[in-house]
Amino acid sequence: MAFAKRTAQATNESLHRIFTMAEAPDSTLGRIEQEMSQNLVGFLNNHIVASNNALTDIEQDFICPHIPEQPEFVSDHMHHLLDKLVAQSVHTASPSFIGHMTSALPAFILPLSKLMVGLNQNLVKVETSKAFTPLERQVLGMMHNLVYHKDDSFYHTWMHSAEHSLGAFCSGGTVANITALWVARNKLLKADGDFKGITRSGLFSALQHYDYQGLVILVSERGHYSLKKSADILGIGQDSVIAIETDENNKIDCQKLAQKCQQLQEKNIKILSIVGVAGTTETGNVDPLDKMADIAHQYQCHFHVDAAWGGATLLSNKHKYLLDGIERADSVTIDAHKQMYVPMGAGVVLFKDPSSVADIEHHAEYILRKGSKDLGSHTLEGSRPGMAMLLYASLHIISRPGYELLINQAIEKAQYFADIINKHEDFELITKPELCLLTYRYVPKAVHALLKRADEEQQSLLNELLGKLTEFIQKRQREDGRSFVSRTRIQVARYGGEKIIVFRVVLANPLTSKENLQDILTEQCLLAQESEKLLPQLLIAAKL
Amino acid sequence: MAFAKRTAQATNESLHRIFTMAEAPDSTLGRIEQEMSQNLVGFLNNHIVASNNALTDIEQDFICPHIPEQPEFVSDHMHHLLDKLVAQSVHTASPSFIGHMTSALPAFILPLSKLMVGLNQNLVKVETSKAFTPLERQVLGMMHNLVYHKDDSFYHTWMHSAEHSLGAFCSGGTVANITALWVARNKLLKADGDFKGITRSGLFSALQHYDYQGLVILVSERGHYSLKKSADILGIGQDSVIAIETDENNKIDCQKLAQKCQQLQEKNIKILSIVGVAGTTETGNVDPLDKMADIAHQYQCHFHVDAAWGGATLLSNKHKYLLDGIERADSVTIDAHKQMYVPMGAGVVLFKDPSSVADIEHHAEYILRKGSKDLGSHTLEGSRPGMAMLLYASLHIISRPGYELLINQAIEKAQYFADIINKHEDFELITKPELCLLTYRYVPKAVHALLKRADEEQQSLLNELLGKLTEFIQKRQREDGRSFVSRTRIQVARYGGEKIIVFRVVLANPLTSKENLQDILTEQCLLAQESEKLLPQLLIAAKL
To answer: Predicted ipTM?
Structure first.
């Protein structure tokens, strides 16, 4: 007992130290931190091991289901993390990892993130965030201005108004899209006469009251999967997300959209929202937003633009015309953790009308009191970190022209990559870049010419074999770990709308050079040669 | 033009530096970082200015709605942030700020957070998270084990199974609660015969198919507001959240709960979920979970436990009995950013049945393919940061017995505070601590005795005046900025269920000492004297 008491006392003191004493600079954690601070990319290069460990092997290091009964020294645990976690992470900042939307981050973000964590503010209410609340409202104002460019008096009136909001910060594009459609749904099915509104009475009573045969969301077939998820969560159902065909440039076919709207109206099925895509996840194309706004206006429905990826393009005076019409959207999603170079966890939804959030307001006794400026009264999330600070700092340090350069360079880089793919004998460009995304595939020279003059059946056979080859190359490249492109299947008009397996690249990392891009093609050609069966099979098929 | 080109070139180079060159150790940001690393609490003490600036004054610093056209030097911007943001933040780590659920963090969390941001993994898919995916699954396994303590073979089978999940990480308790009820809703209204299930066909068709007159959620009147928000988002409607009365200890009255279930069954209204609260936000009380599980079992409905606050108590062998019955819940919410001392943004929802997530699974062409281990196929959020790493590290470094000490001490501290409030002539303890929360109010000695023997009307008048006084003290204390307790209104049985304004404290910060608590009462007594009108008014009323 005396021993147990002494042990408790010792643990107690060591716990107090954990909360008050920093790691010494020469401790393991101190040294790691210094290494990261001085040269993050170098640190990641040194510690992330490019290995072809299968996920099932990695899982063996993360198998114990017991919370430890013995404390570990910080330095021991850091060695463990470096060895088992960091070494086996993905080098998202690498200039040769061009397969995803996560890029290198500006160096100043790291110490700033530490400051954010150290302050540990909770944005749900003013009581635990104070200056972070007006800061977040200002950042939302800046982003709103970027999209809607209202005059200064508009922002003066609404930016800090307790009962209004220009948008909401959230963890990412999915929550932003859900929030936008939640607002649209609650506004459409609002209180009316005896009916207390969907917020209080639910969807079933709402549809009965308004006598709608159903609600639908219209979006191009390239829309993000989060829209179906939103429809599920909001009780509308995934089948109510109607995919409208796209043209050969992956943009929604507005004629088909208008036809569908007309048909739905005739059936008394209410359109909850038309959703425009500004930067499709797979190909980076932007829908004709202005024309879509016309149609939404004609059918009096909510117009949402999912600009999670492409929204940052508005920072480029050169390219922002691509998003013309976005200023007519009722709501817009933009992810700051994508092309605004802020770390993971920073989504934004913006509302044209500052009173839109009235339809999703929630209050409670101890916080979010009516009339308070607590941000939590109109966000889907409750407690939230102060990520807005990182976007605020980036907007000031990089500034609009700095972002323009980053975006313009990314698009130029994608155009350059498209050029060298087009000139290369063994590749086929599938979708050309509008923003900084493109797709392509490996097509050996011998197959190229044949593919063009083949009949439908033969084309289909060749495409299947080419797809297998593309998949083989992509997997091997990922496993080898020197570089990474992603893979998807998209319908291609020139092959009669057949679904084709392609490489997908996103060229947003400012550190990616032309040499990196050339190297990736070289590596893929070499990998193709290693496909023992696929390439010969393809060449035989091509001779048929 | 040549000038513009040169400028672009210069900006270009400076942008490249931003992504590659760290701040020098002697730069402003470098020095700030060092200061934070060496002594976080000291840094916060130095830089957060205790001021009674009104929020409207602070807003003046965050008023510009334009994204800057000129880049700022990092060091200049840091001075700006220190001056305008940090100085005017809330000192959440202060031992005297005992009004909210945000506490001091262990020092090792700061450099680890920096590592997390530097790695910038995206947990939505394995491709951008690799080892972080099994790590998150392991942490979910450990938390699942804490709640459900299944045997090792259970975890061996399910922890890393592609088609299963023991839970989901998310940004916080609200998303965790929504996710739990989303699962419950989709499971209840699943595909059946011709009906394709709510996921595909929506809530309207689902209720028609199952012929339910409505769906309801039953929770005590102390339930968190996120449950009403969940009901709104999921299309069920806030009015379908039925508040069941609590007893004098703020625990749900199980007899009333059972009666309500019976009534609902007779009306063919389906109970979507019974929700138990393990640690109410306002008073920290825990519902009789085992009895609630009996009732949920009897009426064959989902049983969810919102243990956002109290879940961590399971780490204390001494106090975990308070949550007996939680292991019978179908789903459980726990916030790691509350009493597990992880920074903001770490919520967890756990599912007893690893196949529960099948009802909310989403797939897409380019990621989340069927059979993949991508975590994003069954989370509400899409892209997400690797917060699980911070919980993983804390579980290893602090360990279960370390957490037990923290939790036991917090509860002891609350009992100590209750004691000194009870002994103090000028205070009244309103709710005694079960976990480390309690509520109390200022009641001058002269009023104490009278309050007990007053008739209902007089009591009501006194309570109103006491409420105003409590509010006055709380606001002044917050404005003075040396310490902070929060404020709420709760029904108090001993005053005939009248709603009483009270101080609310949460004693989870390990740095809070007994002296801090004594000082807070002393400060409140002094502030009471400053209420020029309220105190005399009260004393006059008391003499009536």
So the answer is: 0.95
